[in-house]
Write a structure and sequence with these properties.
6 strands, 6-stranded mixed β-sheet, 42% helix, alpha+beta
Length: 316
């Protein structure tokens, strides 16, 4: 976030004018482009450059909406689906998934245009080059994302198979609506996008059943971190005291760890302590001695106690 100047964003601390606010930065940029010309001119002032501080699909859609608005409007539905897939980690559509993944993997070795970015090792220059390529070729990419199928085909098949199996009962779901909390239980790991889509809540605990016991991984979805309009997720709760309580119950062996609530996607997990790169699921889980009903009871109690201490309504 720039410290001053015009700003269109759904990130925390944004300065987006109220009349253009929306759940996605792409939608915000499109609303701005459709706004009153006098309001636009006053908002932009002397700004000459469009700046985005990280590379992702919502960033691409936002840049396209500002720099090539007519093209962005022609592909608006797909751009919003792709941005929501990437930012919220939840299923929207096959083409939305395809566009999000091709943006993310544009320079991957399996990409048909990987050669365009060969030799670019500096992360900022690599991001700039990818944005420039996407902005120039946006119409062709959005009309035929299947031309990049090599970079997303396998993951798409995995997600669709897991979603279908989950809806057929391979994933058991338990909901606690009062706390916006969902517990999903499966035999082994599941894709994060599948968990978010099936959860029906913005606080998600995944219980992985295995021969050596259950593995646990909880995460807060990004909807409670972004500054959204239509989605009202409950405020974040600090999970580190809960991790300490679970560790005490564990009584040795596996470790219980938790991120601070200020992380975009904070996790609480039973396993190896390790940092997390935004959007990447890298923590190694270890089986716990604790039964699922014990762990779930502790989560519900922690949310209930936090709710009693925090005044006001859920963030909107």
């Amino acid at each position: 976030m720039t410290p001053h100047g015009p700003n269109l964003s759904h990130w925390p601390g944004n300065r987006t004018p109220r009349q253009w606010r929306a759940d996605l930065s792409t939608a915000i940029a499109l609303r701005c482009q459709r706004g009153d010309p006098a309001e636009q001119a006053k908002f932009l002032g002397s700004a000459e450059l469009v700046v985005n501080d990280h590379y992702d699909t919502d960033g691409f859609g936002s840049l396209l909406a500002v720099l090539r608005p007519e093209l962005a409007e022609r592909h608006e539905e797909l751009l919003l689906a792709a941005a929501a897939t990437g930012d919220f980690g939840c299923w929207q559509s096959r083409r939305g998934f395809a566009v999000d993944r091709l943006v993310a993997r544009l320079a991957h070795r399996d990409s048909p245009v990987a050669g365009e970015f060969a030799g670019l090792t500096d992360p900022d220059q690599r991001s700039l080059a990818r944005y420039r390529w996407l902005l120039e070729h946006a119409d062709a990419v959005l009309r035929a994302p299947e031309s990049f199928a090599a970079v997303y085909r396998d993951e798409l098949a995995q997600v669709e198979a897991e979603l279908d199996a989950g809806l057929r009962g391979a994933v058991q779901r338990q909901h606690f609506p009062a706390h916006d909390f969902a517990v999903l239980t499966s035999a082994g790991p599941r894709h994060r996008l599948v968990l978010n889509t099936l959860a029906g809540g913005y606080r998600v605990l995944h219980v992985q059943q295995g021969r050596e016991g259950c593995c646990y991984r909880y995460h807060d979805r990004t909807e409670s971190w972004f500054d959204l309009v239509s989605i009202q997720a409950r405020p974040r709760v600090d999970l580190r005291p809960l991790a300490a309580a679970l560790a005490a119950l564990e009584g040795g062996g596996a470790s219980w760890c938790a991120d601070p609530p200020t992380e975009p996607i904070p996790e609480l997990w039973c396993g190896d302590p390790a940092p997390q790169e935004y959007g990447q699921i890298t923590r190694v889980l270890r089986p716990s001695r604790l039964a699922p009903e014990v762990v779930v009871e502790r989560f519900v109690g922690h949310f209930a106690a936090a709710g009693a201490m925090v005044p006001g309504s859920p963030r909107g």
